[in-house]
Design brief:
The chain is mainly α and 185 residues long. The chain is built from six helices and no strands. The radius of gyration is 20 Å and the shape is globular.
């Protein structure tokens, strides 16, 4: 339960940070309360889903609990879809070997690259409260930080998962003896 509540709290905090970042990069800074409430609810729900996956993973439950990550999908709809590689590929690679971590880092950097390239021609000085370079920097930095947070959260569901209790063959005699009082090491 603790991990689920932590997931909800972290999801809510990430939703607040994401909404603040959206305000910084918006050309129309008037944000509605209904939109803010929806974003916070979606991020909190995503945090709950990833918290459930983290709790199941820690308890050694079945890998099927990874499916609770589907609660994070609504956050990825519309503009949030640029963060999907960070959640899935970044989450998969974050807790694995060096090559997988490079793939995770590349997946996290997809969102800032796509957002900066996609908005390059649209950025007009008259619409921005700050210079073009600063705007692009805020856009890229915010997307990179959100991508990193998504990868970290996604690693709860997509990272390595120990076999559930009772799954697989029993340990062999030699392997079971290693590290025990009667074993060789």
């Amino acid at each position: 339960m603790r991990r689920v509540l932590a997931g909800a709290g972290l999801g809510l905090a990430l939703g607040v940070a994401a909404r603040w970042w959206m305000r910084l990069v918006s050309t129309q800074p008037e944000l509605s309360w209904s939109g803010t409430g929806l974003i916070l609810a979606l991020f909190t729900t995503a945090g709950v889903g990833l918290g459930i996956a983290a709790a199941a993973r820690a308890a050694g439950r079945s890998r099927w609990w990874r499916l609770t990550a589907v609660l994070a999908v609504p956050v990825l709809l519309s503009p949030g879809m640029v963060l999907a590689p960070a959640l899935v590929v970044g989450g998969w690679g974050l807790r694995r070997g060096p090559r997988a971590r490079v793939a995770a880092a590349a997946a996290v950097l997809v969102a800032p690259a796509v957002l900066v390239v996609a908005t390059w021609a649209d950025v007009e000085q008259s619409l921005m409260p700050y210079p073009d370079g600063v705007y692009r920097g805020v856009l890229a930095l915010g997307a990179a930080l959100l991508g990193a947070a998504f990868a970290w959260g996604g690693s709860a569901a997509f990272g390595p998962w120990a076999a559930a209790r009772g799954d697989g063959p029993p340990p062999s005699g030699e392997r079971a003896a290693v590290g025990t009082a009667g074993g060789a090491g």
